[in-house]
Each structure stands twice: as structure tokens, then as C-alpha cells.
Amino acid sequence: MSDAKTKIDEQVKSTDVVLFMKGTKSMPQCGFSSRVAGVLNYMGVDYADVNVLADEDIRQGIKDYSDWPTIPQLYVKGEFVGGCDIITEMTLSGELDTLFDDNGVTYDKDAADKIREANG
Amino acid sequence: MTRTEQITTRLKDAFDPRELEVVDDSESHRGHAGFQDGGESHFNVRIRADAFAGQSRIARHRAVHAALGKELVSQIHALALDIDS
User: Which of A2, A44, A69, B5 is the most buried (most CB within 10 A)?
Assistant: First the structure.
């Protein structure tokens, strides 16, 4: 494995929920990254944010790792879940809640319901 | 051929969609990262095709990425996909 791939592999396997994004969870630098970070922040999920803009090797490496051409990318328990469109759809359908339930990830269910009410 | 036309052609060829809408949304991202003069940097695609039946969300997105090809995907800054069977 390349250095970047090894580093990514360690990151996604050492933390339950990891978001590779442009910017940080407190200061996103792209609307799509901002949307996913916003959902996780609002749902009170404990997650690690990796700013791909800070490391060109990771920025390209994460695309190769998942064979997925875009950022953001969300990982739960080492598994790639999806990018902005998929996370948005899963949030609204309740699938994201189920995924978190199944993987023992704690989150605020009421907050998730509020997102759905506001976008229903 | 414009990128809008390339996207439309490749998706039609690959999936024979019932509904297909390819919108160049670049203007609404003017001044943001990735905006290119002349537009064609940000696209919204809505596609409905029987070919996606029974596929997971990730599989559907991967199929669209594959149909567009690595080169075209790498030229586009943002591609928002709404895919269903």
C-alpha cells in the first residue's frame, strides 16, 4: 500500500465515523462538504473530520481508496457509505439512522426527525 | 460537443432512461471554488431508468460515473446525482 492509502486505512478503521471533506467540520470550504458536516453536527454525531485540502496525497488518495471521484466521503466502521447526494437521501429516508443504530453510533434521534420534518 | 451534450449522450447510451435531465448549474456557483469561465463545471443530473432497479445507492452512482468515464468526471467540479429506477 502507498503511504496515503495506509494512512487512510488507519483513519477509517480507528474511528467509527470519519468524514473526508474540504475544510473542517467547524469551517467547511465547499457547499457539499458543508451539507454533510452540517447533518452530522446537527445530529450530534461524534466523528473525525479529515480536511483533504490540507494534504494533496490524501485528497487524491481517498478517491483511489474508495474508487469514488468526489468529496465529501463518509465512512462508518471502515466502510464507505457515500457522498453528499447519498448521505442527504439516507438522512431524509431514515436509512442513516438505521446505519448508525446497526453500528452502535450514538446520535440525537429527535434532531434527525427535525431535519426530516423541515425537509418533508 | 459541450459537456452537457456529452453527459446526455453517454447516459442515454448506457441506460436508455425514461427520464433524463442534465442541468448546467455552474452559474449558481459563480465565485465559488471550481467555477470555470464559460460554465459547465457544476451539473445536476436527474435520471430514471429500469437499469437501476435492485441496485444499491452506491452501485447506481458508480454505474453513472463509469458511463460518463474517468476523464469527463475529472473535468467536472461537481456532479449532483438524483438516480432512481
Answer: A69
Residue B4 and residue A99: Cα distance in Å, rounded?
35
Judge contact between A71 and A52, C-beta under 8 A. Answer: yes
Q: What is the pTM of this model?
A: 0.92
What digits encode the pLDDT tens for the residues A66-119?
Answer: 999 999 999 999 999 999 999 999 999 999 999 999 999 999 999 999 999 999
Residues of B in contact with A30 (CB under 8 A): 32-33
Which domains does chain B possess?
Answer: 3-84 (3.30.300.90)
Q: Is A82 on the interface with B (CB under 8 A)?
A: yes
Chain A: give the shortest CA distance to residue B33, in Å.
7
- CATH number of the A3-112 domain: 3.40.30.10
Residues of B in contact with A86 (CB under 8 A): 57-58, 61
Is residue B83 within a helix (H) or strand (E), and if so which, with residue range? Answer: strand B78-84
- Tell me the average pLDDT across A6-16: 96
What residue segments make up the domains of chain A, in order of their start?
Answer: 3-112
Task: Decide if the complex's ipTM is over 0.90.
Answer: no
